[in-house]
Design a protein that fits this description.
Blueprint: H1 2-19, H2 23-43, H3 47-72, H4 87-111, H5 126-134, H6 138-166
Helix pairs in contact: 1-2, 2-3
Length: 167
Amino acid sequence: MAFYIIAFFIVVPAILVIVSRNPVISAIWLVVTLFAQAALFVLLNAELVAVLQVLLYAGAIMVLILFVIMMLNLNKTSLKWRAVTGERLILGLGAFYLLAVLSFVLWMISTGPAANAPAKEIAGTIEATGKLLLTKYVVPFELLSVLLLAAIVGSVVLSKKQKVKET
């Protein structure tokens, strides 16, 4: 039952992202969708993925998206709904089709043989991921940290050269 509640809080805000006229409001609905997806990851016992979902996507990426929206400097005339002939009919038919497909899938899931199958334990916990990173994948993990350090140093060097040329 928890899955269906979380799925509702994923699908409805995702539709509102598409339908909303204001891009800032769309970005807020996208944050709600991302938080609901993190709740779905928690339901699947993948706590690390849920934390990364909130920190990276709902946090950092959304700040970048809002920054770009603010840089576009949208005025009120560009946010008005442009009526196209039959557009509401197409949206209504699409919503009806989506509802019909989702209803059919939910009916198949609830009556199929997998409805009574026990859930498998997955290895998405923070402890299991930490053990893998620091035992089996320690060399690629450290090489990645060196690569990121080189990228940071390179961006600092490039920005310093550009500032010297400008003055």
